[in-house]
Amino acid sequence: MRPIDWSGMWVPEMNPLEVVLRVSMVFLFVQLVLRLLGRKELGRYSTFDLALLFLLTVCLRRTLVGEDNSLTTGFIALATLGAWDWLFSWLAFRDRRAARVLEGEPRELVREGELLHENLRKTHISRSELLSHLRSHGRDDLKSVRAAFLESNGRVTFLFREPPQ
């Protein structure tokens, strides 16, 4: 059994600035790809989505930190990811235009009980999938829906008509 290399586990093999640059570029690219995939993909996790997320981390590990296994490089990479996430959250909170770009806006899927087919097509939500979301709210008739939206977090929300008094 090898003894623990206490000092070696902290000595980075890569320049820390290169780690920050690599992580930043990959983070921004992944954000762009996930944004292009659409919000629906973030609001539900199928086995395909989970496989994609796990494989994504495996594929990008070397891109982020190369062959460097030091704790220092790992901490720098994690801190950089955290900083980008914090910055994006702060920007979205402070500026409505930034929030629209970073998080997107809700998209109306149903208006007064009628499907908005163009928006369903753009969001890649089928009629049957929308009805499945509706059934999860204990309803099965689109006529009871005043409006439905795909929210920026990927969830579908419904506004129902009030029942006649």
From TrEMBL:
Membrane topology per record: Multi-pass membrane protein
Domain YetF C-terminal: 96-159
UniProt lineage: Bacteria, Pseudomonadati, Myxococcota, Myxococcia, Myxococcales
Name the record gives this protein: DUF421 domain-containing protein
Any Pfam family: DUF421
Transmembrane domains' residue ranges: 20-38, 45-64, 70-93
Subcellular location: Cell membrane
Keywords: Cell membrane, Membrane, Transmembrane, Transmembrane helix
Family as reported in the entry's similarity comment: Belongs to the UPF0702 family.
Major localization listed first in the record, in broad terms: membrane
